[in-house]
Specification:
It is an enzyme of class 4 (lyase). InterPro entries: ClpP/crotonase-like_dom_sf (IPR029045), Enoyl-CoA_hyd/isom_CS (IPR018376), Enoyl-CoA_hydra/iso (IPR001753), Enoyl-CoA_hydra_C (IPR014748). Pfam families: ECH_1. By secondary structure, the protein is of the alpha/beta class. It folds into 2 domains: 240 residues, Alpha-Beta Complex (2-enoyl-CoA Hydratase, Chain A, domain 1); 44 residues, no CATH class. The protein is built from 13 helices and 10 strands. Strands 1-2-3-5-7-10 form a 6-stranded mixed β-sheet, sandwiched between helices. A 4-stranded mixed β-sheet has the order 4-6-8-9. The longest helix has 23 residues. It is globular and about 55 Å long. The protein binds ligand LOHRUJSQ. Ligand LOHRUJSQ binds next to helix 4, strand 6 and helix 12.
């Protein structure tokens, strides 16, 4: 019986991985048909990309918008999706590391880009359509969180498979301060990892937790001295890359199957916040560097 269950599970996992591979081979459907095709060579302006490790088998991506603390603008997310697809296709790459430049991993979705949006634009259009692309990647991904991982930045880290934190890292879901809510896993992945009370506290207060607190809560698996963070992440990625890629993908898939559920409802709730005055006020106040005056509307 145990064997039967195992075989059924392996078949299911294999079928799912094959399905995903097929999906990724059709890039025009995968993300944004109009502006993105992963088979086209691309010059990146928002990220730095190079292969690392003794055998060049680690795909390395550094978010590279230093001045805006690697705020996740649409172009950056598009480039990230493209680079991930390139590594997914690269037969030599067995694992991927994502980190940020400067003092942030990513300070969240780009508030300046979102400020002028309204409900019609976020509901009907392809608002944030690239955000979950990372979850379609079958190769293991390590987030090396070097500084602020806030809002969408924290969610991006949680979409990776392993999180290492530098000593200066901090994690938070400050969307509530902007009059909106976490929309890419902060209300799902976060409570699953850190438990309801801590997730509620982080999401309802917008307060940040430091690297040690994140370690204690199980959000990250290691805290490393800042200068060793990336090298250690690459070393772990090299180890993973030395194993069977089919096995590591299946292992990732198996854990994620137990871990994930649909995020559709949560995304639509996030979009609903764009019908509200307080979402606009929160974002405008941030851009204008003033305190928001919420009207509960
Ligand atoms: C289908 C999936 C749906 C996905 C939905 C995803 C929804 C995600 C929503 C979000 O992520 S909302 C954003 C959440 N993040 C924040 O609210 C953090 C905002 N930033 C800060 O609070 C502070 O910048 C800081 C991180 C605490 C650092 O403070 P510090 O004083 O050290 O630096 P600053 O002078 O504030 O920032 C420097 C520079 O960077 C700009 N910036 C920072 N964060 C963002 C951002 N998220 N978006 C755009 N720009 C950002 C900041 O404005 C400064 O630039 P200048 O104004 O000086 O040009």
């Amino acid at each position: 019986m145990a064997g039967l269950v195992r075989n059924f599970f392996s078949l299911r996992a294999f079928t799912e991985i094959s399905r995903r591979r097929t999906f990724l081979q059709v890039p025009a459907l995968a993300v944004k048909p109009a502006s993105y095709c992963c088979s086209e060579p691309k010059t990146y302006t928002q990220i730095l990309v190079e292969k690392r490790g003794e055998k060049n088998n680690v795909g390395f991506i550094q978010l590279n918008r230093r001045k805006s603390l690697n705020a996740l603008c649409e172009e950056l997310m598009l480039e990230l999706s493209h680079a991930l697809d390139e590594y997914e296709k690269d037969k030599n790459v067995g694992a991927i590391v994502i980190t940020g430049i400067g003092k942030a991993f990513a300070a969240g979705a780009d508030i300046k880009e979102m400020e002028g949006l309204d409900f019609t634009k976020v509901y009907g259009g392809d608002f944030l359509s690239n955000w979950t692309h990372i979850t379609k990647i079958t190769k293991p991904i390590i987030a090396a969180v070097n500084g602020f991982a806030l809002g969408g930045g924290c969610e991006l880290a949680m979409m990776c498979d392993i999180i290492y934190a530098g000593e200066k890292a901090s994690f938070g879901q400050p969307e509530i301060i902007l009059g909106t809510i976490p929309g890419a896993g902060g209300t799902q992945r976060l409570p699953r990892v850190v438990g309801k009370s801590m997730a509620m506290e982080m999401c309802l207060t917008g307060d940040r937790v430091n690297a040690q607190q994140a370690l204690q809560a199980g959000l990250v698996s290691k805290v490393l001295p800042d200068e060793q963070l990336v090298d250690e992440a690459v070393k772990t990625a090299e180890k993973i890359a030395s194993y069977s890629k089919v096995a590591t993908s299946m292992c990732k898939e198996a854990i994620n199957t137990a871990y994930e559920t649909s995020s559709e409802r949560m995304v639509s709730t996030l979009k609903e916040t764009f019908t509200r005055n307080d979402r606009r006020e929160g974002m405008s106040a941030f851009v204008a560097k003033r305190k928001p005056e919420f009207t509960d509307s």
